[in-house]
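Q: Given only this backbone (70 positions), what sequence would you predict?
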């Protein structure tokens, strides 16, 4: 149903894509992979990382923030 209606609006989506987007946005908001894992109903933490797209900027910021621990 999602595929059908999204194509009708010229924005092809799938439930799977929506799940990835939701997982990514939830992680960006809460910064808690365990919470994302629970909400998405995933049993393996490795799978959870596939549903949260963490960009290079976020990785770089995390490393840069380590300077404040000196």
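A: Predicted residues:
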């Amino acid at each position: 149903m999602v595929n059908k209606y999204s194509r009708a609006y010229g924005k092809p989506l799938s439930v799977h894509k929506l799940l990835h987007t939701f997982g990514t946005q939830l992680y960006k908001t809460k910064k808690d992979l365990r919470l994302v894992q629970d909400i998405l109903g995933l049993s393996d933490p490795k799978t959870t990382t596939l549903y949260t797209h963490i960009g290079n900027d976020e990785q770089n910021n995390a490393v840069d923030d380590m300077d404040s621990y000196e």
